[in-house]
């Protein structure tokens, strides 16, 4: 049995149960217990529950991913659909994300929504060092409808603003090897009620390595420097550890618009 001491995620054995994250075993165990009880009561229900158990075992795994060969790129920390890309102030641990000072450093915010059809495992978006890892207490408001089961190209801005303002969140700040500040924010929802990341301050990390997970079907805001451009669009699906979310802008992309360009 091998243990990843940087995140508390554990891999053991082979097959569908071979690389289940240690933080995901509770869901598999609960589904397995329900399967046993339902099988004793009514076998067809037990068979259905067994299918759910196998599904949980599948989405709670730590998959093998191929990291892009681009050290300057910022990769997706989670599987899911892109529900927002906008310029926004970097978060502050002392203030809600929708109530920040105008003097706060601005960055590009990419929002990812993970559904129950996705792997729940999350990974580091960059290689570098962990500056801090903070859990900010708050509520766990519902995201609305059946959002945790389905992909949506966008969410109501008021709903997202309420989640950022009042929900529990975990903020992990990184300093990349390219001296770029990147902040990953796990946001609690009605389904994602536990935000897991055990990276200690000062820890040197590698892009694509295990970060943690949100229990379950979580919402993530990733803040990258404002001199980066998005490499993905709203509504597209990203794959943790493989999809490039943003990269440094080229001179052509950062060139100011002149009168002759209009």
Features:
262 residues; alpha+beta; 8-stranded antiparallel sheet; globular
Distance between the termini: 62 Å
Strand content: 25-35%
**Order of strands side by side in the largest beta sheet?**
11-7-8-9-13-5-4-15
How many H/I helices? 4
> What is the succession of H and E elements?
EEHHEEEEEHEEEEEEEEEH
Multimer state:
single chain
The coarse silhouette is globular
The class by helix and strand makeup works out as alpha+beta
Low-confidence stretches: 1-15, 99-103, 144-154, 255-262
How would you characterize the largest beta sheet? Answer: 8 strands, antiparallel
Q: Report the count of strand segments.
A: 16
What Rg do the Cα atoms give?
19 Å
Query: What's the mean pLDDT score?
Result: 80
Helical content stands at 10-25%
Textual characterization of the structure:
- The N and C termini lie far apart (62 Å).
- The protein has helices at residues 25-41, 43-59, 157-166, 251-254; strands spanning 2-4, 9-11, 74-75, 80-89, 106-113, 121-123, 128-136, 169-176, 181-187, 194-197, 204-205, 210-215, 219-225, 228-230, 237-238, 244-248.
- Helix 1 runs antiparallel to helix 2.
- The chain contains four helices and 16 strands.
- By secondary structure, the protein is an alpha+beta fold.
- The chain has an eight-stranded antiparallel sheet, with no helix packed on it. It has a three-stranded antiparallel sheet with strand order 3-16-14, with no helix packed on it. The chain has a three-stranded antiparallel sheet with strand order 6-12-10, with no helix packed on it.
- The chain is globular and about 65 Å long.
């Amino acid at each position: 049995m091998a243990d990843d001491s940087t995140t508390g995620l554990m891999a053991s054995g082979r097959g569908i149960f071979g690389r289940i994250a240690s933080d995901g075993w509770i869901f598999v165990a609960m589904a397995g217990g329900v399967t046993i009880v339902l099988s004793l009561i009514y076998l067809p229900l037990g068979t259905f529950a067994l299918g759910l158990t196998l599904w949980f075992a599948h989405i709670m795994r730590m998959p093998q991913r191929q990291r892009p060969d681009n050290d300057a790129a910022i990769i997706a920390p989670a599987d899911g659909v892109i529900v927002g890309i906008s310029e926004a102030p970097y978060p502050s641990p002392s203030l809600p994300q929708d109530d920040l000072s105008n003097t706060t450093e601005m960055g590009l915010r990419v929002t990812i929504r993970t559904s129950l059809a996705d792997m729940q495992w999350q990974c580091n978006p960059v290689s570098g060092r962990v500056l801090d890892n903070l859990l900010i207490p708050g509520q766990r408001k519902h995201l609305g409808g059946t959002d945790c089961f389905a992909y949506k190209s966008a969410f109501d801005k008021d709903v997202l603003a309420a989640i950022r303002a009042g929900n529990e969140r975990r903020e992990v700040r990184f300093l990349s090897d390219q001296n770029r500040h990147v902040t990953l924010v796990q946001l609690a929802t009605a389904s994602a009620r536990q935000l897991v990341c055990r990276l200690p301050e000062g820890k040197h990390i590698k892009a694509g390595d295990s970060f943690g997970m949100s229990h379950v079907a979580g919402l993530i805001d990733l803040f990258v420097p404002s001199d980066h451009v998005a490499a993905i669009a709203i509504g597209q699906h990203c794959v943790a550890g493989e999809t490039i979310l943003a990269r440094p802008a080229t001179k052509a992309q950062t060139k100011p618009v002149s009168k002759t360009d209009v």
